[in-house]
């Protein structure tokens, strides 16, 4: 018994189509076969069992790309069905396990789906409730998010007036039919990427261009910190792992950061809205002894940042991230995010646009801070004033925190405003 991608074996493809027709009649077999062979917007998988020496498709599902948000490449599963003659044999669970294995092999970090009738089944398969997402449509890749949202709204209104189903929902409940979205995490963390000083300099040079004018030079001092892409909303955990790699903290871990955060009910899927919890993970799991929470509202906080970086330490700073640029902004915690402050610099006149100093710098009148975060390997550079202001405006509401699965019986408490971790 195994789950394979369909396409070449016409007999198996027709058996998969028969499964779909039993569950969702009304669509011609030729149309379904054409959809299996057209892989531009997804691939069809089949659960294959041996029946009297003959491979037979007894179940099927379709998998396609979901929109990548910077938290990792995700896929969505649709049209999940087991043949009516083969139900109550555990094949549904086998199909979902095979889909999970296939998705991991393809490099996906999450699987999404939506359902109105099988919530309990998918929960048993490891799925959690989540917000609705957009599926990746090749025809829409040239549109920006605003245009896509407007188009989706128009099509949604038009769909309500139409009786005929489109190919996107022929085998799935329409929005509004008591539908819930669910997702399953496939990967806990991504491998860290170590960069040479030259590679890091190239990234910093590109990141500082927007803040400079003609014949200006950006001089900086920094620690070279390995970068790690975050998976899901685990920006704080990714920041801790970057710090661990920088300090070469190779002590054995008995548990992962994510497992411990979930077990202690700090988090449901990696999100951390309380910096006390993040510190506790750094101490208990990563075994950092020199780890302290710092008040960023003090007058000399920028000098403190500079001193910390000069001493070879790092700062994990929560802030409000501007979507798109990842620069610090003031949205009262709506886009709460964690970064690692790893360097600083200043702008003056010079022929060389970007120059690295091997020695700590004297503090100029306007200091810029260099940060990296789990959504992009490109450093983020802005004035120390803007970083501190963004941190001091963090006050995420229940709505912001509950974008992720809510811990049953627990109320999340935000504790990010005016605080950072020095490690």
Beta-strand percentage range? 15-25%
The counted number of beta strands is 15
Enumerate the spans where pLDDT stays under 50 for 5 or more consecutive residues: 139-146, 151-170
Approximate shape: elongated
C-alpha end-to-end distance: 50 Å
The SSE string, one letter per element, is EHHEEEHEHEHEHEHHHEHEEEEEHHE
- Find the structural class using helix and strand composition: alpha+beta
How would a crystallographer describe the biggest sheet? Answer: 8 strands, mixed
Descriptive account of the structure:
With 423 residues, this protein is an alpha+beta fold. 29% of the residues lie in helices and 24% in strands. It contains 12 helices and 15 strands. It has helices spanning 10-23, 29-37, 91-105, 119-124, 145-159, 197-208, 235-246, 257-263, 275-284, 301-310, 384-391, 398-401, and strands spanning 2-5, 43-51, 54-65, 74-82, 110-115, 128-130, 180-185, 216-222, 292-295, 315-320, 336-349, 354-356, 368-373, 376-383, 419-422. The strands form 2 sheets. Strands 8, 9, 10, 11, 12, 13, 14 and 15 form an 8-stranded mixed sheet that branches. The longest helix is centred in the N-terminal third of the chain and has 15 residues, at 91-105. The protein is elongated and about 80 Å long. Residues 139-146 and 151-170 have low confidence and may be disordered.
